[in-house]
Amino acid sequence: MKAEYREDICAGWDQVFSIDEPLYETKTDHQHLIIFKNRYCGRVLALDGVVQTTEADEFIYHEMMAHVPILAHGGVRRVLIIGGGDGGLLREVLRHREIQRVVQVEIDLSVIDLCRRYLPNHSQGAFDDPRVAVVIDDGMHFLQHTDARFDVILTDSTDPEGPAEVLFSERYYAACRRCLAPGGILVTQNGVAFLQLDEVRMSATYFSRLFRDWHFFNAAVPTYVGGTMTFGWASDNPHLRQIDGETLGARFARSGITARYYTPELHRAAFALPQYILDAIGKPKG
Ligand code: SAM
């Protein structure tokens, strides 16, 4: 019988991949990890039963998580990534030449090591960039103890269970706010809203207590099944969410980045949310 990887999306609904080539499976100090090859999706990483990233569609998530806040800000020098052990987000962040420093705080060294080895197309050497400092720590612990300030903080985490649960808490968002430079932006992985609406609702409640401006933007990532992927956005500068298309276009052209998903038009459109999400976050008028 052909080997399969079955992801339990919710009761009565699974996503099944054929394992065309098993690459690695282990129990790390923090989570169960499997990397395998699927003929359509390429190499796939799953942690604790949840698909994290695939070679076929990772560009959508990573481009949107990196380029939307960095181009909206327009002057980013220092970035903090929490999680993101596969290195795909780090790769996209580093494509912005003006960025001087990226600190990546990942709780599980095994994810970084195994992804560098079995998923090298994600990081493409990013971990060797001299602008990068990798810290092996819990993101919450790091934020509570650092004096550093960042223009952009990106939470590229697993879902709110196990080690990542704390990364969806009010005290985590408060710690992020403390570590943002004036006018800084926090962007978070907030799940597939159709299936994880309570998580979006909860983050919205916490953002609204902590930040002057907050919202969500979305992108359809095929292997995060169940609808569009939701990214949280929080900042004390409301202007950054309203940057006009001309300015974004000029910044994007200046960056010299060739993207496969991101466009300045999509950037602006991504903040338009379906009514059921607007209702859930208490912004019925958008
Ligand atoms: N893009 C993926 C998604 O949306 O599901 C996330 C990919 S990335 C591999 C997630 C990483 O978050 C994992 O490597 C995991 O070890 C890390 N992580 C989970 N909890 C963490 C914590 N408290 N501090 C730092 N990293 C954490």
Q: Keyphrases for this structure?
A:
single chain; 286 residues; Spermidine Synthase, Chain: A, domain 2; Rossmann fold; 2 domains; seven-stranded mixed sheet; four-stranded antiparallel sheet; binds S-adenosylmethionine
**End-to-end span in angstroms?**
50 Å
Structural class: alpha/beta
Mean pLDDT: 97
What is the chain-wise order of helices and strands?
EEEEEEHEHEHHEHEHEHEEHHH
CATH architect. name of the largest domain: 3-Layer(aba) Sandwich
Helicity level: 25-40%
Number of strands: 13
Fold and architecture overview:
- By secondary structure, this protein is α/β, with parallel strands linked by helices.
- The protein has two domains: about 5-55, Spermidine synthase, tetramerisation domain (Spermidine Synthase, Chain: A, domain 2); about 60-280, Vaccinia Virus protein VP39 (Rossmann fold), CATH 3.40.50.
- The chain is built from ten helices and 13 strands.
- The structure holds S-adenosylmethionine.
Outline the fold blueprint.
Layout: E1 4-10, E2 13-18, E3 21-27, E4 32-38, E5 42-47, E6 50-54, H1 58-73, E7 78-83, H2 88-94, E8 101-106, H3 109-118, H4 120-123, E9 132-136, H5 139-145, E10 150-156, H6 170-179, E11 180-192, H7 197-210, E12 213-219, E13 229-235, H8 245-255, H9 264-269, H10 275-280
Parallel strand pairs: 7-8, 7-10, 8-9, 10-11
Antiparallel strand pairs: 1-2, 3-4, 4-5, 5-6, 11-13, 12-13
Helix pairs in contact: 1-2, 6-7
The structure holds S-adenosylmethionine.
